[in-house]
Design brief:
Order of helices and strands of chain A: EHEHEEHEHEEHEHHHHHEHEEHE
Shape of chain A: globular
Structural class of chain A: alpha/beta
CATH superfamily of the largest domain in chain A: NAD(P)-binding Rossmann-like Domain
Number of helices of chain A: 12
Number of strands of chain A: 12
Largest interface: A-B, 145 and 144 residues
Helix content of chain A: 40-55%
Number of domains of chain A: 3
Radius of gyration of chain A: 24 Å
Oligomer: homodimer
């Protein structure tokens, strides 16, 4: 009887899949690096593959550049019934698999929208996919068995399956992930070029938020952006044009054009904000001034919880060299007054 | 004997100053709108001005467009010894005051870096300025008494005084506040133009952060950006050029140029991140998977507090249609392992 799953590539994603399926599926582990397999096995992600034993499904979680070659090699060994490969940009990998002569009916590309700064089997986690969107990208050749196998895999790992073609996937992540990365990096690069030190002392939460992902690892992002350059490039060009027109509007003091940009920005942001909560309730902010010491944020949130208020998001604004800060709670608008009253009753300094 | 302070313009800022000085200073309140004065007085910000009684210091917290005229009118009445005006862009207001014939030696421009979405005396708060940078912008004409009076005012309100010339102030906020606003608005505008709905379902925390301030009020920001257009315009143009070059690098698959942008972005972000904590400690992230119901975030933070860990920032990542989410705590790097151990011991699902 075949094992349930063979994971090829026991890095962060492959090992996390094994950990997520622990107790559910008999998982085989393979990697070019035997130490990586041993680490994954020791953490409980599955058992080391002997190079022969077959599996119902084979998941390739190797670097995108070697997927096609490894896929064809393993398909010729006949060790799997259905196949999938993980990559953050789908179309190039699917094209490479076709060019390499892979059996396409049994194959479905896939991309769990999960990751973290650290990498490797050591950083893997059974929770990595829990609640995260998990893209399924069948090609025109993908058969129903392969698609069903990947959907089942995503669900058993706790992910939220979202089916869309490779091209659409790549365009979606270009807009929702790769463009924001380039934007934040470029903003921070201008900050670097123009700041003489004094300016950032006047920085507020706006700059903090807008530049946050500029801290991402360059080596990783060079790969991602290069692989998806065809989709990202035109979006970056469009943003550059939008900003060029904004600069002209400012130079000409064209208030109508400036206001038009701000209004379109409101509407664009609403697309994301609505998505965030997964519903279209209205939200409101409750601000609390707190001393900067352990337990203060927790105390604020506990008081809100005591009142039955669900806090959707939290923001903390610290201030340089000062012993206090502001905690902002995002709550459903219809619970705002309850939250404010409960926090004030518990002795917190609720801001109006 | 003169009162300590006359506040002219009892909106959010003026009324908040009165509330912050309650019990410390005898505050007089004036506004063109008698209802605004009555509201501020009823909230305890001070007492209604009779139009004659003098004060040691007069703070003009009126809309920037009427500052110069009101200042000259009141100076001719001789009701104050020293004077200040609040505005988010300093140089144009200072120029208007000079052109209107104001007595400049007794005057110092100022800008508390505080604000909120809501406005008016009703929204005012004694805490509004606590721990916030408060810019003091003396002109070449400002005498030592006027500067000292504004510095004292900032300190008594709980603000952190930061002295810099008007031109430097305006360039600093252009970079640290106005450019990020235009950037977020333009990014969200591209999102609006290009999204067909599906894409934002793949949005992660990166897009959330980068677009957050695109939700800001257009009417307010048209005023701010127009008043500081001379400083903001060139920065927006520079960012547009940076993005144009990034688009070209992507089109030409110039990996070196893409990596260079990402590396400069890292360095630019580090300027802000270091500022944030007010010191240069290293920080680390601790992630915890939680069910989406009241009290969960508080529980996580309490467990961290029990271990004596100070949480510098909190991020909550909700997921559409799912009953769980991820709470990320930013902690000093040297406390990360303690925080993780304490949370795990308290039964929380700590992510690796």
């Amino acid at each position: 009887m075949a094992a349930g799953l063979l994971v090829v590539g026991t890095g962060l994603l492959g090992t996390s899949v094994g950990l997520a399926l622990r107790g559910d599926t008999d998982v085989l582990l393979h990697d070019r690096d035997p130490v990586a397999v041993a680490t994954a096995a020791a953490r409980g992600a599955g058992r080391s593959w002997d190079g022969v034993e077959p599996a119902d499904h084979v998941l390739l979680a190797t670097p995108p550049a070697v997927v096609a070659e490894e896929l064809v090699r393993l398909q010729r060994l006949g060790v799997g019934r259905t196949w999938s490969h993980v990559s953050s940009v789908q179309a190039p990998v699917q094209a490479a698999a076709q060019a390499a002569g892979a059996e396409l009916a049994a194959l479905c590309g896939t991309h769990p929208m999960a990751g973290k700064e650290s990498s490797g089997a050591q950083a893997a986690s059974a929770d990595l996919f829990r609640g995260r969107p998990w893209a399924l990208c069948p090609s025109a050749h993908t058969g129903p068995d392969a698609l069903a196998a990947v959907r089942s895999l995503a669900e058993r790992c706790g992910g939220v399956p979202l089916e869309l073609p490779a091209q659409e996937h790549d365009e979606a992540v270009a807009l929702a992930s790769h463009l924001p990365q380039v934007t934040a990096s470029a903003l921070a690069a201008v900050l670097l070029a123009r700041s003489a030190g004094q300016q950032v002392r006047l920085a507020g939460p706006g700059l903090q938020d807008t530049s946050r992902i500029a801290a991402s690892a360059p080596q990783l992002w060079v790969e991602v952006l290069s692989a998806n350059a065809a989709a990202v490039g035109p979006l970056v060009r469009e943003l550059a044009g939008e900003l060029d027109r904004a600069a002209t509007a400012l130079e000409q003091l064209d208030r109508g054009a400036v206001e038009d940009l701000l209004v379109r920005g409101n509407a664009g942001r609403a697309l994301v904000a609505v998505k965030r909560g997964g519903h279209d309730r209205d939200f409101a902010v409750v601000g609390v001034s707190v001393p900067d010491r352990p337990g203060q944020i927790a105390g604020v949130l506990l008081a809100a919880a005591d009142a039955g208020v669900n806090v959707e998001d939290v923001r903390v604004d610290h201030l340089p060299g000062r012993p206090s800060g502001v905690v902002e709670l995002l709550v459903a608008a219809d619970t705002r007054e309850d939250a404010r009253a409960a926090l004030a009753a518990a002795g917190w300094a609720v801001l109006p």
